[in-house]
Prior knowledge:
Zn(2+) binds at residues 189, 252, 268. The protein has helices at residues 32-36, 52-64, 83-95, 110-122, 136-142, 180-196, 200-207, 209-212, 220-237, 252-261, 268-285, 291-303, 315-322, 352-362; strands at 7-11, 20-25, 42-48, 68-74, 103-108, 128-133, 147-152, 155-162, 167-171, 334-338, 344-348.
Amino acid sequence: xxxxxxxxxxxxxxxxxxxxxxxxxxxxxxxxxxxxxxxxxxxxxxxxxxxxxxxxxxxxxxxxxxxxxxxxxxxxxxxxxxxxxxxxxxxxxxxxxxxxxxxxxxxxxxxxxxxxxxxxxxxxxxxxxxxxxxxxxxxxxxxxxxxxxxxxxxxxxxxxxxxxxxxxxxxxxxxxxxxxxxxxxxxxxxxxxxxxxxxxxxxxxxxxxxxxxxxxxxxxxxxxxxxxxxxxxxxxxxxxxxxxxxxxxxxxxxxxxxxxxxxxxxxxxxxxxxxxxxxxxxxxxxxxxxxxxxxxxxxxxxxxxxxxxxxxxxxxxxxxxxxxxxxxxxxxxxxxxxxxxxxxxxxxxxxxxxxxxxxxxxxx
Length: 364
Ligand SMILES: NC(=O)c1ccc[n+]([C@@H]2O[C@H](COP(=O)([O-])OP(=O)(O)OC[C@H]3O[C@@H](n4cnc5c(N)ncnc54)[C@H](O)[C@@H]3O)[C@@H](O)[C@H]2O)c1
Ligand SMILES: O=C(O)C(=O)C[C@@H](O)[C@H](O)[C@H](O)COP(=O)(O)O
Ligand SMILES: [Zn+2]
C-alpha cells in the first residue's frame, strides 16, 4: 500500500502564542487524538447541520479513545455566527463541566471554525481548540491564523478574538461533498492570495479554470497549499494585524458591506470577488495599479464563475457600513490596494469621488 502524502505547513508562534502545524492530505482524522493530548478529559465537537454524519463519526471515534465527547450541532453557514449560537455552546460546555484542560474541535467551513474558535477563546477565557476545515475557504484561510468571531446586526465579524488553534487538519477528501458554489467561493480567497503574494496561483488557474473548479483537478492540492503558505507567512509575522496582516483583507472592505447588505445570505467568497474588482479599480483610479493587472482581476475571477458586479443603487448603504470596517481609524477609511502584482499597500482616506468612480466600475 502506498503512503498518502501529507504536507505540513508551520505557523510560527508569535505574541505569546504557540506555533502549530497545518496538515494537508487525506485521512488525517487519526491525527486528532495526538493534537488533543492526554491532559484533556472532555472534547466538544462543533459541526454544522450539513456535517451531522461527520460530527457523529468523530464523536464516536474520540469516545472510543477514552474521551468524554459531546457533539454540538450548529446551524449551517452564517446563521451560526451569532451571539445566540455562541451562548448555546457556552451553555453546553457549562453543563458538561468543560475545564481549561479540555479541548474544542471545530469541524466545518469557515463559519463553523470562526464560531468554534470564538467559543474556545471566550470559554474560561481561553481553552485549546483544533480546526478541521471542510471547505476550500476554510482550509486556505478561515481555519488558519487564529482570527475567530461572530457577526452583529451592524457588521461582519465585529465581535471576536485572536485565538490560534493548536492544529489544523485539512482533509482533502472532505471537499468531495462540498456543493460547487461553495467550492467556487473558496477560490476567491485562493485568487486573493495570488494577487497579494503568489502570482503562480493565478497562472495555474488561468491554465485550466475548469479544473480549478473541482476537487478532482490536478492542481487542487497545489493551489490549496500555495494559498495556505501565503497566509502562513503573513500570520506568523503579524498575528494581531498590527500592519502586514491587513493585506489579507484585500477586497474585504466592500465585501463585508455587501454581506451585511445581503443579511449574510451570500457566500463570503462571492462578496470577496466583487470586493477585489472594486479594490483593483480603486488602485487603478488612484494611479497605483497598471491596467493589465486591474483587468486580470475580472478575467481570472470570471473564468471560475465568481461574480464581478453588484447593484448600483446600494452605494450609500455600503459606504456607511464600510465605516465600521476594522481597518478604519476614526473617520479615516482605509483600503488594501495593489501597487502592482503582489505588491499590496494601504490606501488611506481616498477622495469620495474616487471611491464612487471605482464603485461605478463594479456596478456596471
Ligand atoms: N477567520 C478567518 O481568518 C476567516 C478567513 C476567511 C473567511 N472567514 C469566514 O469564513 C466564512 C465562510 O466560510 P466558508 O466559505 O467555508 O462557508 P461556510 O462555513 O458557510 O460553509 C458553507 C456551507 O457548506 C457546508 N459545508 C461545509 N463543509 C461541507 C462539506 N465538506 N460538504 C458539504 N457541505 C459542507 C456548511 O454547512 C455551509 O452550509 C465566513 O463567515 C467568513 O467571514 C474567516
Ligand atoms: O486572516 C485575516 O486577517 C483576513 O483578513 C482573512 C480574511 O479572508 C477573512 O475573511 C477575515 O475573517 C476577515 O477579517 P476581518 O478582520 O476583516 O473581519
Ligand atoms: Zn475572507
